[in-house]
């Protein structure tokens, strides 16, 4: 895969893959409980991020103006993990990632990773999915892609090899799907779409960071693993990726 990546993004990505609070969490004893905890934690934190940015506020205001029928349509219970990607959801994902950044840095990031950018995250994510068996319009698939990519990077994925290997990626999706469905139950369709796009953005950023100079990779890998454990209570170094999904070592 050939993707133009500006070197200046790599050190920034090393410390900014996922924003949000850092809850105190404890390791669980089973993989099923680990997946459930990870899913609910990510959903809670990213939903807060997405709800706090100006784009989400404008969407809420627009929906209020539509009256009761409009509110009902956006509050439809999630019966599956699929969603319809939209320009608004993509803008929400970018805005959440840019929260707290200086205006100039936010504009630069959006110009690079937004629609039509040199590293448009939707285009890059679609390329990463090739051959993985995962879909680009499903929240459970987006969770699986992010988690598999994190594992691969933390364990020294080799540039040029598939970041999302076939078989294993689908197995992780199967593991995560029940927890994702429970977490999305009763949530608006707009929440599912924004969350799916946000996780896709994170996976794209992981890939970009993993393409940095060789001497930067050991620190980047350690940071990726420690960030996941600190914020979401998941230690990828205690797991192994198999054709049946994740298993404890």
Describe the structure.
The protein is mostly helical and 249 residues long. The protein has one domain (37-61, 81-248). 60% of the residues lie in helices and 3% in strands. It is built from eleven helices and two strands. The chain has helices spanning 9-14, 31-52, 54-65, 68-74, 87-98, 103-113, 121-129, 139-154, 168-184, 189-210, 217-232; strands at residues 239-242, 245-248. The protein has a two-stranded antiparallel ribbon. A hairpin with a 2-residue loop joins strand 1 and strand 2 (245-248). The radius of gyration is 17 Å and the shape is globular. It starts with 8 loop residues before the first helix and ends with a strand. Keywords: Signal. Residues 68-87 have a biased composition (Low complexity). InterPro entries: DUF6683. This is DUF4197 domain-containing protein. Residues 1-27 form the signal peptide.
The share of residues in helices is 55-70%
Please, what is the average pLDDT? Answer: 79
In DSSP terms, counting alpha (H) and pi (I) runs of 4 or more, how many helices?
Answer: 11
Instruction: State the end-to-end distance.
Output: 31 Å
| The number of domains | 1
Largest sheet: 2 strands, antiparallel
Q: What is the topology, as strand order, of the major beta sheet?
A: 1-2
* Rg measurement, Å: 17 Å
The string of secondary-structure elements, in order, is HHHHHHHHHHHEE
Shape: globular
How many β-strands, per DSSP? 2
Structural class: mainly alpha
Percent of residues in β-strands:
under 5%
Q: Provide the low-confidence segments as ranges.
A: 1-8, 19-29, 54-62, 65-78
Keywords: Signal
InterPro entries: DUF6683
Organism: Hymenobacter jeollabukensis
Protein name: DUF4197 domain-containing protein
């Amino acid at each position: 895969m050939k993707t133009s990546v500006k070197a200046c993004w790599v050190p920034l990505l090393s410390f900014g893959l996922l924003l949000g609070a850092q809850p105190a969490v404890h390791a669980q004893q089973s993989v099923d409980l680990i997946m459930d905890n990870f899913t609910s934690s990510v959903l809670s934190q990213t939903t807060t991020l997405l709800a706090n940015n100006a784009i989400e506020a404008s969407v809420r205001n627009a929906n209020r103006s539509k009256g009761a029928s409009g509110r009902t349509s956006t509050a439809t219970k999630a019966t599956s993990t699929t969603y319809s990607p939209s320009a608004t959801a993509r803008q929400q994902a970018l805005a959440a990632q840019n929260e707290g950044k200086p205006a100039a840095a936010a504009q630069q990031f959006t110009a690079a990773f937004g629609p039509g950018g040199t590293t448009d995250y939707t285009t890059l994510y679609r390329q990463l999915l090739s051959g993985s068996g995962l879909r680009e319009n499903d929240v459970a698939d987006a969770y699986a892609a992010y988690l598999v990519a994190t594992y691969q990077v933390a364990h020294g994925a080799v540039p040029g090899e598939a970041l999302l290997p076939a078989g294993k990626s689908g197995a992780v999706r199967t593991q995560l799907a029940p927890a994702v469905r429970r977490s999305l139950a009763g949530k608006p369709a707009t929440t599912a779409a924004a969350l799916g796009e946000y996780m896709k953005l994170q996976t794209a950023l992981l890939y970009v960071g993993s393409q940095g100079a060789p001497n930067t990779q050991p620190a980047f890998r350690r940071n990726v693993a420690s960030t996941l454990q600190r914020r979401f209570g998941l230690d990828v170094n205690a797991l192994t990726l198999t054709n049946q999904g994740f298993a404890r070592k």
